[in-house]
Specification:
This protein has 203 residues and is of the alpha+beta class. Helices cover 40% and strands 12% of the residues. The radius of gyration is 20 Å and the shape is globular. This is Cytochrome P450.
Length: 203
Amino acid sequence: MKMILHLEVQRKGQAEIDAVKGFGRLPSNSDKPNFPYVRAFIAESLRFMPPIPLCQLISQNFQGDPHALKGDDVYGNYFLPKGAWIITSDRDTLLGPDPMAFNPDRYKGNDEAMEQVLSLVFGFGRRQCPGRLFAKNSLFALLAAPLAICDISPGLDISGRVELPKRLCTSGSVITPGPVRISVKSRSVAAEALLAEIEEVIG
């Protein structure tokens, strides 16, 4: 969804992949440390539209499961009474002047900043999601491979006009992308060869 709404982001991701691995193979998880922009794209996607919509239910300014304090506490200059709800937030000055914009560049390749966002999505401490590493690796593979071999752009309606998605996501206990029409084209002859190899393996 974000790749067709922000084509400039897609191009940056493709340029990073091309510079690192060339055109002879698909990206693998071993390449992940060399793809800071692709990793930032994933972090920004999860920040912007987390799969669990609690942040939308409570406020556009907060994200993460609420926790109640077991006792009185002090944070900075703030007194927090026992029983107060604490809700993690990612809409602060650490993310730059426009937190509501989709912008992978905001992380500047900083893994710590990306991990802060991922912690809000997958949880932290003893209650973090046990499938966190599997999800992160899967998201990387699902994003990096199409970026390497395909140009993805908005599809056309029956009149031949560009059709942008009218609904960004579904509602419910878990958010999924809304219906979207896209156009997918191989980026090169080498990309077509890789696609052929994938089709042969899949059968």
